[in-house]
Amino acid sequence: MPKNVHVIAHMHWDREWYFTTEESRILLVNNMEEILDRLENDPNYPYYLLDGQTAILEDYFDVKPENKNRVKKLVQQGKLLIGPWYTQTDEMVVGGESIVRNLLYGIKDSKQFGQPMLIGYLPDSFGQSEKMPQILNGFGITRSVFWRGSSERHGTNKHNFYWAGHHGGEVLVHLLPLGYAIGKYLPLDLIGLKKRMDKYLPVLDKGSVTENEDIVLPNGHDQMPIQQNIFDVLKNLKELYPDRNFFLSKYENVFEELEKTENLDTIFGELLDGKYMRVHRSIFSSRADLKSMNTRIENKITNILEPLASIAHKLGFSYEHGLIESIWKYILKNHAHDSIGCCCSDKVHSQIASRFFLAEDKTDELIKYYKRKISDAIPQDVAIDKLVVFNLLPYPRREVIDAEIITKMKNFELVDEEGEIYPFNLAKKEIIDAGLIDRQIVHYGDYDPFVKYYINFSDSVPAMGYKTFLVKEIPGQIQIKKDIELNFAENKYFKITINSNGSFNIVDKLADICYAETLLIEDGSDDGDEYDFSELEDDFVISSKNCLTSDSNITQLGLKTILSSKFTMSIPKDLESRKAKICDSEMNIEIIATMYQDSKIIKLDVQVENNSLDHRVRLILPQQITATASVSDNQFGCIKRPVVDSAINVWQAENWDERPDPIYPMLCYVSTDSSNGLSILTNSVREFEIIGENFDKLAITLFRSVGCLGKEDLYRRPGRPSGIKMLTPDSQLLGKQKFQLAVTPNDSNIATLAKEYLTPLVYYNKMPYNAMKLNDVAFTLPYQFSMFNIPESGFVMSVLKKAELLNGYIFRAYQCSADQVMLTGLYLENEVNLNEEIINQQETNENDINQQKIHKTIVLDNNIVKSYLIKI
Which terminus, N or C, of the chain has the lesser number of Cβ atoms within 10 Å? Predict the structure, then answer.
């Protein structure tokens, strides 16, 4: 039988890269017209793949809305293949909920036109997450197509195999061994065509597994228009290779053949090998400013906004699906692999920053709106203000409440609705112009200023709910206690001192271990580009170990203690100075640590003023013990990686495309495989490495300063440039760079601690004044409220949100602290998949539901995400 060659017509659509979205949109209008015309008018042209992402259609319909019906007809005819993604997502530095929403909205958008292509099509993502099979299965997707990250050391040298997560999920894979563009612009001339195909066909044949030796020839490339003479090319191919059957096809046809094939290999886990194609293992820190924005916004949406909106909806307010979807789509546009990889031109990076700015502004304002709507509906005396504190985790929390109260009162006390007084500490106060609070006040001649009081106190806040404190005026003048200057900071978990070089000595009191000189700064060369870190072969690495602080202090402010350290590092100004080992520039660093009473999390705010070019800056945490592996989170679980990749000894002999350095991504935390040691939690950067002669230090990349999109012949990545050679001076990140991190001892419940760090108690200070007016609602709310209460047991709530279509809320959770964790306290309706479709319809007694007596236990297996529809 002839060998089948499935020619897949497609265009790979980078919305932006070294070109802007608007530049590509102009090409899109041109290309789409040619595609639609060919599919409509040529009955012999069967299929065209629109790159598996619906953002293409969104961009197109923004300027060509009149063509929606043309697209819809072709999709329903099965000729134009769309979805399932919204954008071609990265898999390494974006969170699990982001990937879920990418598919959720991509499938939703596709269904406006017809059925989406249910294949996990990610032909260019820089490596494959271990959790991707599980996520795809959550949408009913059992097939996957990708290019980067696999090699034979995972367990197969074939191009078709099953790929499974270590803890769950499995998909059938068609690997693109030579990428998605080997059939781009196929030449008509026989000599040129044969020269190209003789190069590629042996590689494709070697990996084939089906009876007819089916192989795939992708006929497309970046922004490539449809190849109009493809049938002439196919005719010439058949002439050149009469033993082969060349035909236009689609990936569904390929998988139908694969599914008939028995005894396919199965490989497991994360795929980050750069042997045959580059995966850019250090791209996780390119443009740290933009990646930090993404981290912060992702956490605000899933940890604050969506559960807060769910509480508000339960209390009688509207759940604004449209506003929330628009926020997600802003950041999902930035999650395309080149965009979030930040391997783009400066102009594109400025547009990415703008989208992040808009997404964060929308998020902050919607959070403020929901807090206000709830607070406005809680009764109060006209002369009394309110402080409403929200706990957006599913169990009660007793913590220090850090809040700001703005008022004209000269003195006040905090009381609850029963009149119980809650003592608080006043840290500082400042004058606020009345016009900033409500310009109508000034309009009518009241120029008396407001005062902002910074207070802290400790109390318990109900699970997934809120507690109201009334701000009641009392006689007298409120007094600020004098700051208490200390020589050390201490709570029941830690004792901390600041060294003369600006580092910290942290004593873990429970483990009786002193971590000396924690938070040193390391500065080394970076002769790489936006894709990869690569030091000079003869590097000149500088540590802050020999610095002297210009200012350091430890101040107690009520129930929290602030430790501040400022110092300056002398470093080379550029690569030439570093080669000469000359320190002719300065880097100013400030580290502020905040330790709360009874908290095992030390919050860090790190600021670096960068005045130098082409270098990498890392934060170093000593571990006091040799590590054999790192433990960090990925989407909906955790992953353990060795401190040394075994391929480091053979990569040059085997001619790998890049050196397999153990530089890895995290999402929220990283620790080691030891019961002792220090972990890092992050609300900004997401790259780490275990370093040191004894692998006893954890290095967190704060930022990389580079000036080129792509360079050739790097020390760690020999050969051609990645991308293109384009200067990107903005990627040098000159100026002040800020990072939000935290330190905590290694803990089996580290995922829960990270969630608590990233889900702070939030509050709303209700005054009689607002710059923007809202009408009162026709109902009142209680002073305290809890939507539900699940006893804390080492699990992580990924999200609580209103279901898109079903009547209820989506509760999603996972755990990686034990073999199994049992959750109780929810009134469950049904288990649902990640696409929010009911898996197994449960028969329930309506009377029991009405009386809220249906208590079911959720069993969470290790590293398995589960979603449930709940009605409360």
Answer: N
